[in-house]
């Protein structure tokens, strides 16, 4: 380190508003990379606002622009680079004070030549105590100063100026002696203090010459002075007639000078009329009273003389005189508002002073009669609390001996303007781009016209160029798509020729931040310091600043370099690392929760000099694409990483075997990303390097070594002894084989592939592609999963590398066993009576074997109920459970069975009925031929249907009823046979549940003659219906769906 500050650094707090900055120095030789400061042992932040770097990035010296008491403390500077850290000594920073001198005029000191003299300096208070020095100052040249260097003049310990004896040369009419104070707190500045001027008179005394007492002679020396001005010669005067004037002719000399006055060169004593001319102060002051233009306008001379000489000066007195003339308009209309005060002006010039009177329109004089009428000293007529009666003409009469004049003032009195509608609300907060309207309305005196003017923060908006503002009617302001810059205080000004009204409101537009102001960009070879001022947040706190850069290589491509999230400062700075041989442009973007603001720019670029490449290409790899080549790959480096001209890549490679040497060559295309090296042995291990090179030289970083292999070939060996060692289940088996020699793979041994084709009973493959299972090279078994049960597969095994499959093993055939079926489909369950439940289902979607039958379980949901299980053979698909308990909730489960075992269960929940009579049934009758009819039971849509039915029928006209056999559900039809042709029958269907039964309404039908057969005739409640032809298999389903639909609840499948 070099050029450090003193051990104690003083500063003082300014009370004048002027900055009293001070600096702490910290300079370093070598190649410093980073400067840091510590205060009282803790890290100290150079905020870029109160404390700034003098040369950011190049020097550690800092300046305190606005020192505060809190800046006192112990400071230390640290500078570092890759080789180490250096620390400065510790600076103690203290606050001091130095008051100003008391202001005094220049003090004339009369002293006799040869006498000693002390000039005292009343030094101001200061901590530390100030240092006093003296200097000369030349009154003729205000900037001319010099320090005092004379043998007979010294400064004593108290700061007083000591003359051992005074010389005549110490005195000069324009020389001032001034004391001054300095202090460490002022940093090369000083405070000026008391001023003295010496008037040295020659030594007047008696001198004795004594020659050893033998001869004695006395001599008296008397010093005389010619006349001199004390305050300078008399000055010219320009005065009005009948006023007074004074001329001053102050002198000194020895003997005392005699002063004589002249008028136009003639002694004043020669004038007979001198009663108005008065002399005083020994004739040094001439006073003329009641000046007369014709008499007193002249050149006056002052002559001061004594035996040693004289001084003479001219002074011109101009006495002006004229008639009254107005300095404002003579005829003026003065508008005002009821109740206000109004001034009627009568500004007039006249010499001598005029007589002024105010008259009304009837020529009556207006006297000063306060508080209503008051005539001011400048002749203005003030009327207080104006009324409508005060309107009219007023005249100002003026005259003196040279003439008279008159001014006319017409007073017009109006009613005050008032707002009918003011701006509302007082404060509005809106989002950017949200349209906002402002409206105001005023009422004025009928004789007045109103103009409306719109302002934002004192900026006039009428006819503004900002397209966001629109004024289609004078008293309405529209803000179309407002942005943050449109926030402010808006004022509607209603203006007439006599008064102005203002209505204000505050509009806050929440928007993205404004552009930050870039203050400076300082660059060196390796880094840039970007400084910026805080952006205006547009009423939404700024959450971050982003520093971005673009390079000459990629115009309009901005890359984020740094994000600053500490946003509560006034100024910011960011250090950005740079690459050599690049032109950088920077910008800063402020962001808040509403988005990113417009970037802030500075028209300055950073151009860095070329250097060695800092890095080498990344993602280097090597692999062959053919059996006799080696391809080396890398990721091309960006232009910003080239660091100089003639950028290229140095490629180095060798076999990773003893006794081999490096081969190398250059690739001159910076965008190239690979190179092919031909005529290499198959699948050999290589070591490769890729290094960056430019016109300066090779990269500073040693390139890493990467391992790669030349190209691969087709494996030559097939696995042997392929066989099944275990059947896990119907879909999984274990296959085993013998390993192949790894050298036979001729490449990266990735492992084994097991190929598996599904074949049909004829042994032909039924899929285009095989099912492939992979095994690592260390394994000799594999589990083949997800096979189909009861199926045959053709299987083989091969070895493979990363590019080629080898030959397959001998094919073997595998047959999988039966599996367990999936759940049954479309399970339905319905209670038909108090003790009966009918279930039906469809076969499983996936049988995974040969279906044998179905298990059915019924369990009441109370704890006391035991589960009842039964089995029905395939293909039956319904079951009637007849031992249920009335009014009981049952859980029903059904599952299929194959040779592989029992399958998944499907569930239903059903409630049995209370013990009750079946609901009234309905029926449909279909005539089959002349002596038979089919009766179909139609269970009721509501109520308990019952579990069985039978039919009563009778030939009409007879009293004999026949009864059919009882039919159990799910069967729902019965055939009535042996009927008489061409006869009428009555039919009643009876539904039963246990011992309880319910009859349907009677229906009638007529059988046909044997010779007449009308096919497909049906009778249902004496209406014809079409006869169905469902097969027996669907009988129970038709019954269930017709009666109950599919509304049962699934609880599992």
CATH 4th-level superfamily of the largest domain: Immunoglobulins
Overall helicity:
under 10%
Specify the CATH class of the largest domain.
Mainly Beta
Low-confidence stretches: 1012-1033, 1042-1053
Total domain units? 9
Radius of gyration (Å): 62 Å
Count of individual helical segments:
2
Q: Could you say which overall geometry the principal axes of the C-alpha atoms support?
A: elongated
Major beta sheet, specifics?
Answer: 7 strands, mixed
CATH architecture of the largest domain: Sandwich
Relative strand content: over 45%
- Termini separation (Å)? 86 Å
What would the CATH topology of the largest domain be? Immunoglobulin-like
Overall pLDDT score = 89
Number of separate strands: 90
Derived from helix and strand composition plus strand pairing, the structural class reads: mainly beta
Account of the 3D structure:
The protein is an all-beta fold. It folds into nine domains: 89 residues, Immunoglobulins (Immunoglobulin-like), CATH 2.60.40.10; 94 residues, Immunoglobulin-like, CATH 2.60.40; 96 residues, Immunoglobulin-like; 53 residues, Immunoglobulins (Immunoglobulin-like), CATH 2.60.40.10; 93 residues, Immunoglobulin-like; 91 residues, Immunoglobulin-like (Sandwich), CATH 2.60.40; 90 residues, Sandwich (Immunoglobulin-like), CATH 2.60.40; 93 residues, Immunoglobulins (Immunoglobulin-like); and more. It is built from two helices and 90 strands. Strands 1, 3, 4, 7, 8, 9 and 12 form a seven-stranded mixed beta sheet that branches. Strands 82, 83, 84, 86, 87 and 88 form a six-stranded antiparallel beta sheet that branches. Strands 10-18-17-13-14 form a five-stranded mixed beta sheet, with no helix packed on it. β38 and β39 form a beta hairpin. 27% of the residues are buried. One of its GO terms (biological process) is cell-cell adhesion.
């Amino acid at each position: 380190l070099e050029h450090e500050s003193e051990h104690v650094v003083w500063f003082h707090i300014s009370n004048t508003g002027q900055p009293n900055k001070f600096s702490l120095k910290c300079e370093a030789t070598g190649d410093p990379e980073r400067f840091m400061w510590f205060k009282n042992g803790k890290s100290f932040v150079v905020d870029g606002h109160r404390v700034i770097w003098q040369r950011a990035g190049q020097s550690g010296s800092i300046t305190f622009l606005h020192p505060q008491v809190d800046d006192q403390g112990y400071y230390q500077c640290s500078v570092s680079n890759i080789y180490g850290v250096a620390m400065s000594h510790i600076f103690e920073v203290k606050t001091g004070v130095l008051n100003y001198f008391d202001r005094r005029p220049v003090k004339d000191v009369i002293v006799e030549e040869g006498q000693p003299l002390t000039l005292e300096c009343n030094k101001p208070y200061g901590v530390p105590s100030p240092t006093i020095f003296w200097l000369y100052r030349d009154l003729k040249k205000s900037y001319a100063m010099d320090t005092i260097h004379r043998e007979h003049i010294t400064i004593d310990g108290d700061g007083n100026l000591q003359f051992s004896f005074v010389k005549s040369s110490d005195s000069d009419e324009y020389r001032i002696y001034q004391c001054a104070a300095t202090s460490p707190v002022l940093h090369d500045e000083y405070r000026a203090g008391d001023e003295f001027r010496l008037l040295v008179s020659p030594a007047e005394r008696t001198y004795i010459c004594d020659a050893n007492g033998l001869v004695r002679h006395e001599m008296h020396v008397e010093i005389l002075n010619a006349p001199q001005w004390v305050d300078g010669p008399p000055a010219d005067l320009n005065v009005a007639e009948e006023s007074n004037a004074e001329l001053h002719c102050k002198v000194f000399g020895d003997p005392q000078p005699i002063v004589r006055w002249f008028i136009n060169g003639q002694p004043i004593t020669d004038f007979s009329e001198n009663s108005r001319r008065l002399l005083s102060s020994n004739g040094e002051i001439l006073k003329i009273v009641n000046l007369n233009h014709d008499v007193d306008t002249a050149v006056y001379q002052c002559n001061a003389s004594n035996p040693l000489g004289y001084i003479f000066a001219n002074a011109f007195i101009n006495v002006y005189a004229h008639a009254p003339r107005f300095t404002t308009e003579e005829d003026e209309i003065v508008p005002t508002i009821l109740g206000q005060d109004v001034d009627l002006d009568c500004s007039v010039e006249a010499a001598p002073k005029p007589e002024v009177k105010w008259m009304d329109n009837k020529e009556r004089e207006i006297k000063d009669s306060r508080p209503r009428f008051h005539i001011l000293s400048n002749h203005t007529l003030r009327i207080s609390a104006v009324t409508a009666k005060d309107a009219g003409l007023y005249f100002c009469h003026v005259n003196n001996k040279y003439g008279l004049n008159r001014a006319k003032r017409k007073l017009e009195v109006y009613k005050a303007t008032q707002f009918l509608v003011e701006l509302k609300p007082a404060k509005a907060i809106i989002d950017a781009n949200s349209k906002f309207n402002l409206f105001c309305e005023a009422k004025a005196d009928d004789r007045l016209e109103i103009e409306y003017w719109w302002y934002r923060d004192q900026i006039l908006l009428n006819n503004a160029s900002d397209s966001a503002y629109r004024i289609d009617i004078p008293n309405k302001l529209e803000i179309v798509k407002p942005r943050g810059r449109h926030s402010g205080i808006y004022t509607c000004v209603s203006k007439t020729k006599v008064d102005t009204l203002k209505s204000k409101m505050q509009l806050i537009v929440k928007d993205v931040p404004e552009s930050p102001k870039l203050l400076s960009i300082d660059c060196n070879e390796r880094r840039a310091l970007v400084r910026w001022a805080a952006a205006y947040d547009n009423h939404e706190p700024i959450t971050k600043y982003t520093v971005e850069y673009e390079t000459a290589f990629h115009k309009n491509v901005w890359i984020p370099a740094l994000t600053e999230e500490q946003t509560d400062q006034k100024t910011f700075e960011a250090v950005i690392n740079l690459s050599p041989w690049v032109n950088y442009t920077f910008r800063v973007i402020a962001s808040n929760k509403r988005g990113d603001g417009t970037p802030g720019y500075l028209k300055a670029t950073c151009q860095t000099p070329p250097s060695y490449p800092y890095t080498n290409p990344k993602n280097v790899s090597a692999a062959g694409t053919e059996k006799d080549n080696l391809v080396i790959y890398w990721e091309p480096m960006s232009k910003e990483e080239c660091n100089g001209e003639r950028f290229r890549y140095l490629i180095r490679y060798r076999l990773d075997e003893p006794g081999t040497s490096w081969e190398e060559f250059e690739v001159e295309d910076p965008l190239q990303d690979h190179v092919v090296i031909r005529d290499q042995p198959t699948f050999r291990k290589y070591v490769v390097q890729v290094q960056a090179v430019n016109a300066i030289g090779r990269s500073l970083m040693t390139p890493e070594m990467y391992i790669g292999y030349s190209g691969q070939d087709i494996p030559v060996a097939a696995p042997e002894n392929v066989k099944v060692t275990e059947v896990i289940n119907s879909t999984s088996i274990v296959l085993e084989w013998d390993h192949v020699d790894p050298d036979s793979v001729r490449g990266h041994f990735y492992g084994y592939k097991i190929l598996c084709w599904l074949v049909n009973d004829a042994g032909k493959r039924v899929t285009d592609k095989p099912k492939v299972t992979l095994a690592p090279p260390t394994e000799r078994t594999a589990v083949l999963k997800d096979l189909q049960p009861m199926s045959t597969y053709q299987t083989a095994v091969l070895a493979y590398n990363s590019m080629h499959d080898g030959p397959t093993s001998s094919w073997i055939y595998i047959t999988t066993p039966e599996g367990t079926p999936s759940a049954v489909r479309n399970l339905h369950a319905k209670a038909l009576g108090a003790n009966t439940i009918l279930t039906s289902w469809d076969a499983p979607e996936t049988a995974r074997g040969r279906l044998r039958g179905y298990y059915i379980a019924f369990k009441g949901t109370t704890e006391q109920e035991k589960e009842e299980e039964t089995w029905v053979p395939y293909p039956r698909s319904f079951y009637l459970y007849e031992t249920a308990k009335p009014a009981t909730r049952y859980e029903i489960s059904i599952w299929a069975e194959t040779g592989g075992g029992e399958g998944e269960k499907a569930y239903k929940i059903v409630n049995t009925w209370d013990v009750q009579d079946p609901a009234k049934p309905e029926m449909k009758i279909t005539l089959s031929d002349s002596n038979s009819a089919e009766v179909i039971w139609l269970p009721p849509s509501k109520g308990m249907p019952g579990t069985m039915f039978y039919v009563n029928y009778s030939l009409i006209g007879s009293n004999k009823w026949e009864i059919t056999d009882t039919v159990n559900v799910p069967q729902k039809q019965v055939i009535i046979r042996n009927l008489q042709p061409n006869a009428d029958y009555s039919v009643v269907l009876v539904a039963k549940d246990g011992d309880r039964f319910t009859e349907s309404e009677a229906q009638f039908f007529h059988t046909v003659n044997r010779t007449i057969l009308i096919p497909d005739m049906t009778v249902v409640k004496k209406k014809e219906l079409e006869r169905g032809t469902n097969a027996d298999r669907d009988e129970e389903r038709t019954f269930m769906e017709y009666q109950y639909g599919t509304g049962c609840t699934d609880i599992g499948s």
